[in-house]
Predict the 3D structure of the following.
Amino acid sequence: MPEGPTDDPGRLVTDMADQALRAAAVEGIPIQEIDEEIGSVYEAIIHAVEHRDGGRAD
């Protein structure tokens, strides 16, 4: 997560999701398995960006 505000939050979410999915692929984790566990990677990252002021996301 970048520190402070970002000029393009949509691009931030897309870039982070793409990086996460590529990293999962390298580790042999199928996207379907991720979807079953957390749902949409994009939505999970959007939630994290919206609540990045500290604390745990529930």
In short: The helical segments are 9-26, 31-38, 41-50. The mean pLDDT is 82.
